[in-house]
């Protein structure tokens, strides 16, 4: 464990030390999403959570880059399908 602690950036280690089982369950056990607004909101929240664990600026850029590359997300594909129905 000490080797893992030494290899982990301080800010990531500090965040991990604040988590309880309730915190982990609250983040992983969520009801299904039914609206586009819910999907977008959760996407932002989940990216912010992933950003907390990122160790480098490149990792952070990759996390937030998925927000603008809508082709690679379920929400983006859903929006695309709706637009194809309209046009």
List the helices and strands and how they pair.
Elements: H1 2-7, H2 10-18, H3 21-28, H4 36-53, H5 57-68, H6 74-86
Helix pairs in contact: 4-5
Write a brief structural summary.
The chain is mainly α and 87 residues long.
List the defining traits of the structure above:
0% strand; 6 helices; mainly alpha; 87 residues; single chain
Protein architecture, described:
This protein has helices at 2-7, 10-18, 21-28, 36-53, 57-68, 74-86. The protein is elongated and about 55 Å long. The chain has one domain (2-86). The termini are far apart. The protein has 87 residues and is mostly helical. Helix content is 76%, strand content 0%. Helix 4 packs antiparallel against helix 5 (57-68).
Mean pLDDT: 87
User: Order of SSEs, N→C?
Assistant: HHHHHH
Domain count, please report it: 1
Main sheet specs: none
Structural class: mainly alpha
Q: Give the low-pLDDT segments.
A: none
Proportion in β-strands: under 5%
Helix content: over 70%
Structure annotation, total helices: 6
* Form type: elongated
CA-to-CA gap between the ends?
56 Å
Number of strands: 0
Radius of gyration from the CA trace? 17 Å
